[in-house]
Structure formats: C-alpha cells, structure tokens
Amino acid sequence: MSSLLSIQHLHLDFATEDGLSPGVEDISLEVKRGEIVALVGESGSGKSITALSILQLLPMPPARILSGEIFFTGRDGQTTDLLRQTPDQMQKIRGGEIAMIFQEPMTSLNPVFTCGDQVMEAIRIHRRLDARDARQMAIALFEKVQLPEPERMLSRYPHQLSGGQKQRVMIAMAMSGSPSLLICDEPTTALDVTVQKTILELIRSLQHEEDLGVIFITHDLGVVAEIADRALVLYKGKIVEEGSVEELWSRPRHPYTKGLLNCRPALHRKGERLPVVSDFMDGSVAAGDERRGAETEGSEATANGEVMMTIDDLRVWYPSRKSWLGKPIQYTKAVDGVTFQVYRGETLGLVGESGCGKTTLGRAMLRLVEPTAGRVFFEGAELTALSAGEVKKRRSQIQLIFQDPYSSLNPRLRIGPAITEAMEVHGMGATDRERKARVVELLEKVSLRANHFDRYPHEFSGGQRQRIVIARALSLRPSFLVCDESVSALDVSVQAQVLNLLNDLKKEFGFTVVFISHDLSVIRFISDRILVMNRGRIEEIGEAEAVYSHPRTDYTRKLIDAIPAVGGRWN
Predict the structure, then answer these.
(1) What is the Cα–Cα distance from 423 to 429, expressed in whole angstroms?
(2) How many CA atoms lie within 13 A of 214 on its CB side?
(3) Structural domain that includes position 352
(4) What digits encode the pLDDT tens for the residues 478-527?
(5) What is the pTM of this model?
(6) Is-contact 184 203, C-beta < 8 A?
C-alpha cells in the first residue's frame, strides 16, 4: 500500500491568558491507502487537534504550529506539504481530496436548510454539476449510505432525522467529493450500540469500495477493535504507544493503554470497583491484575421487597397527524401501556435504542411529562392525581440527572449558587452559610474542591460537570433518582469514575435509582434488574445477570450482540 498521509514531528501549542499551553508534541504518523488508522485517547489528549491540523481548520491565533510537516499525496500522485498551502489551495483539498466527518452532526448540519440542499451544495462545489445531476447524485449517495426513502430524505431538515440518520447524511456529504482520505472524528459517540454498529459497518464498507485511507478518532478501544487496522494511543498530546490492533490488545505496554482497555464495564462483574486510567498511571493496579478492579459490597437489590414506585398502564402519546379541524387522528406512542414496580434501594436499569421511549418514561414517572393515561404511585401517593403545587412539594424526594450536564446548568450562574438555589426553593438550610457548607461538603464527596464553588460551568470538563449535576441532585437529599444517559457521552475512564461515584453515593445515602442508558454493558454493571424497552413497550424485565446472559427476546440479543468487545467478554 502506498503512503497517503505522513505527519512528521508536529508540534503545536495554544496562546492562553496564562501563557502557552501545549496542544500536541512530536506527533508522527502515517496513513496508507486502503488502511484505517485509529487515534485513541481521552478528551484533551490531542486527537482532534491533530486531525484539524491536517485540514488547517484550527484558528491561528490562538493555535500556533511550532514545527512539523504534513505530506499528502493526491490522486495525481503529487505530494504536497499541507501546512505550506494557501487558503485557496486548501479550499480545493478540503472535501475533494480529504473529507471530515465531525463528532456532532446536529451542530455540523445547517438547521435552516434541508439535508438534500446541503449535500447537493457540496456536490456542486466539488463536482461542478448542474442542479439536476447534483440531485441524482445526492439520491445515489443517500442510497449508498443506506438512508431509508432517499428521495424523501432530500426534503427533510436535520431536526426531522434520528442521530444515526444525521450521521449518514454527514457521511454522504463527506463522500460527495470522492476523497482519498476520510477523517472520522468520534462519529459514533453517544449513538445507540446498534446504530453505532451499522455506522461502523458502513464506514468499513465504503473504505473497501473506494480504497480510502481513514483516520478514525475515538476514546473507545472497543470501537477500535471493530474497525481499525492500526491504532495510535495519545496521552497529553503525545503518542505513547502504537501498533496493530491485535498487538495493543494482546500485549499493551504503556500503563495508559492498559487503563483504557480495562476500565470498560463489560469486563467487570457487578459489585467490583471499576479501575480507572489513573490507577494504572500511578501503579495502584498491580501487574497481572489489570482486568479486575477492587471488589465492593454487592447491592441488596430487591431483597427487602418493599415497593417504592408503581407504574400502572402508563401511556404517553403525541399527536402526529391532525384533521383539518385540528383534531388528532394519528399518534406517536412514545410510551404505550407500561406496567412495572421499582423496589426501595435497588438500581433498575432502563435500556433500549433511541426512540424506544425510555427517556419519556423516566420523565413521565416524575411528572415532568404529563401522561396521556395510566397512574404512577410513589410511596403510596398517586403522583398522577396530585396538583402541580403538590407535585412541586415532592420534587425534593425525586430528582433527575440529565443527559447533558452543560445544557442543564445555567452558563451565567456559578455552580455554588446553582446548587444552593434549589435548596432555597425547597427551604433547606436556615442560612446562606449553612447551605454553602452543605454544598462544599457535597462537592468534596463527588471529588471536586471547595474552591470550585465560585467557578462557572464552562471552566469544567464534561466529567466534572456530570459530578456537579449529581451534587445538585443530592443537595435536596432525595430518596429516588432518575439518571438519564448520564455517562453516554463521557470518555471510558471518566465514565468508570462516574459509575464508581454513583455506586459509592448510593451506598452512603441509600437512595433508589432508575438508570437509563442505551448501553447494556453499563446497565448490566450498575443495575440489580434490567427493563428492556422497544417501541414504547416493555420487551422484557428481570434480574440483570439473567437478562444479559440469557436474553429471552431477539431484540435484547441484538442489543447485546452490538456491544463492541475488548479482548472478549467474560460469561
């Protein structure tokens, strides 16, 4: 295979108020035609910075390239140093020779233009076709990326598509210029495991058909095992290990690589404490014991048999079509006749693909979404029969941890006041000093510091923001928590830290948890029982290990089979 891209000794830093901050240091890598090379590491390791440097997409300043060369060999066989190209020359290379699929398709697609218009615009720029031919090519591309009803998809806006469908539109747009090199920046982060699997298979098939070179950026070594030929592990802007995927799995040399490999919940039994990357970096995990974390006490689960919440024939329907008089004639049944119980002190895992109704169910349980029919009982009281004022009084007992902590925190409010505000509303704490002391105590319990009290949300990492919203929920001393996809978009090591934290806090405070996720390996690790949802209904429910090891339905088997394996899963 001939060389397509060669990065040699790239050094890059950023100018900040506190001085220069290193971005990447001495990065060297090569991508050949027909090869998939993965860049692996946590947020801040330098993966995306390296990819954006290739296309000159970093703002300069504050970014500054100190040294290095990036050679690219185009279709004409000519090799050029991308760092020495003018903006006009790079404009021809971007999309035409090198294409990029960004992490979040919703922010990459323009919400005011249809998907068809956006793909056709890319086609006309790179192929110089008229409107009719561009439309036909867009339909062909939509077929190639396996979008349903390609012609109808041309007229759809991004908000009308699912996450997986938006990602397919981005892939179609990237392929519109027939690139030689495709850069995929976390293209499956926060997607369902089944959708993730289809996207990975799609990228792999396109790579084979078009003989593409691919740079695949991810923090998940399970995903790397599914798609990559070679992998480079980045840590704090440096490459700490590289080699074939098989070599990294069977003989990881660097402690950081070992940490990334072993902190995935799929490798650990319930009741164990998940190891995190820092355990490997500081030598806390002994050699030869990498795949097993320190054990913790198991949960009592449903041993006491005391029912805390009962959901009885709950339905949440949304009108999808109305008559000319405005009367609903067709409904989307987000939740359709769901009945189950939650026991005091247990963790109930609620799992399913996007659109199955799990988030709607979680919010309907808390009366954040009004049910169409059915009843919800909490500690003997019927929540669905209470007035809005009466429900508000119970809000301190039942709390929700949202999926995206950044959007659930006021960016103009420091985190201390953001947490004490809820305490004031519910009359907790006699004075501001008492409330502040309680918040500082909670921040320290979630591994933050007292001086974080006066910082703004943007000053924290994703994992730290997740800890903040956990502290805010616990500030009201709730007895019932609903965690909605609380770890889905986090790095695997940060995810392990948050899961350990939730288990520790649950043991200390004794609350009951409904944990919503699309990832069955996470659900299996943290839950006592698992409830599987599909199209608004319960597919199956049972003890966590029984559902995971002996699924009764094809749908549950499909979810389990879609989980990327790292060195094989234990049974």
Answers:
(1) 7
(2) 33
(3) 346-367+386-561
(4) 899 999 887 876 777 788 888 888 888 888 888 899 999 888 888 888 99
(5) 0.79
(6) yes
